[in-house]
Amino acid sequence: MQLFDDETAIVTGAGNGIGRAIALALVREGVPTIFADVKTDTVESAVAEATAAAQAAVKAGTAKKVTPAIPWVGDLADPAEREALLVAARAELGTVNLFVHSASPPRHERDHLFGVDQATWERMRAVNLDAGFHLARELARGMIDQKVAGSMLLLTSLHAITPRNLPHYSTTKAGMAMLVKELAKGLGRYGIRVNALVPGAIAAGGFVASPEMARHIPLGRLGRAEDLAPMALSVLSNRTAGYVTGTSIVVDGGLALKNWFEPPEFGEIV
Ligand SMILES: NC(=O)c1ccc[n+]([C@@H]2O[C@H](COP(=O)([O-])OP(=O)(O)OC[C@H]3O[C@@H](n4cnc5c(N)ncnc54)[C@H](O)[C@@H]3O)[C@@H](O)[C@H]2O)c1
User: Fold this and answer.
1) What kind of fold does domain 9-257 have according to CATH?
2) pLDDT one-digit tens code per residue, 27-39
3) Which residues line ligand 1 (CB under 6 A)?
4) In terms of CB atoms within 10 Å, which of 84, 158, 196, 230 comes out highest?
5) What would the DSSP string read from start to end of 39-105?
6) pTM of the predicted model, to two decimals?
7) Closest residue (by CA) to atom 9 of ligand 1?
């Protein structure tokens, strides 16, 4: 089944992990896609991988032309750089109508209740929540102006609703979960759908999981970024999810059925 027609996409966090897997899958489906990330080397290698696959598809006769995979490198914690991404996207693709927000700063166990400092707190909020809101709203303005339908997917977390011992992370994910609902409610009348994709324990780079954790997962293994990409495409596509908005789709092998996080040792609190 063909999932997309003339859509174009921005994927943040496309240099690594889940964002990368989704961006690669979009290009495989023929969607011109901007790979946005703060890391130059990983964006370049993701774009090279996407382009090589797109060229191979043309050679094999399964695609008519090479689908563009476009790199964009910048820090989405910075409002000016978010604006630069929107300007670059307009110049490269015109009106963008698919948006995936997967970028998120690294999570470190040391950033617990008493460990997290102000800069780390603010950076997490700026990338996860502020960039998610700003980019989604500005892309929606463009779609409404051009009268095109669209779809957005924000990567939240099981820790949007259960604590994770990382308060800067879980609180921004909770904020993103409500942002999805606000956007979906406000944008539905314009044909713009907005949903959350909720990964479980995905050994994708941003989360360093002990293999021992698999025993807490009913399906018996940690997740892979590639477990998320097919669901992401299905939810983004109007063909398969045209009546789905404002909801959270969990891809976790059943992890949410268990509550496995132990409180951390804080050490000496002074
Ligand atoms: N991996 C998991 O188990 C898991 C679980 C729940 C939720 N998630 C969520 O899914 C998303 C992807 O997770 P992942 O494990 O693939 O993460 P990851 O760390 O592998 O990838 C995140 C990407 O975001 C980029 N990034 C970080 N700060 C940025 C900034 N300021 N500007 C632009 N790009 C920036 C990083 O360079 C990286 O490429 C995240 O939002 C994460 O919170 C992941």
Assistant:
1) Rossmann fold (3.40.50)
2) 999 999 999 999 9
3) 12-13, 15-19, 37-39, 42, 75-77, 102-106, 127, 155, 157, 199, 201-202, 204-207
4) 196
5) -HHHHHHHHHHHHHHHHHHHHHTS-SSPPPEEEEE--TTSHHHHHHHHHHHHHHHSS--EEEE---P
6) 0.96
7) 155
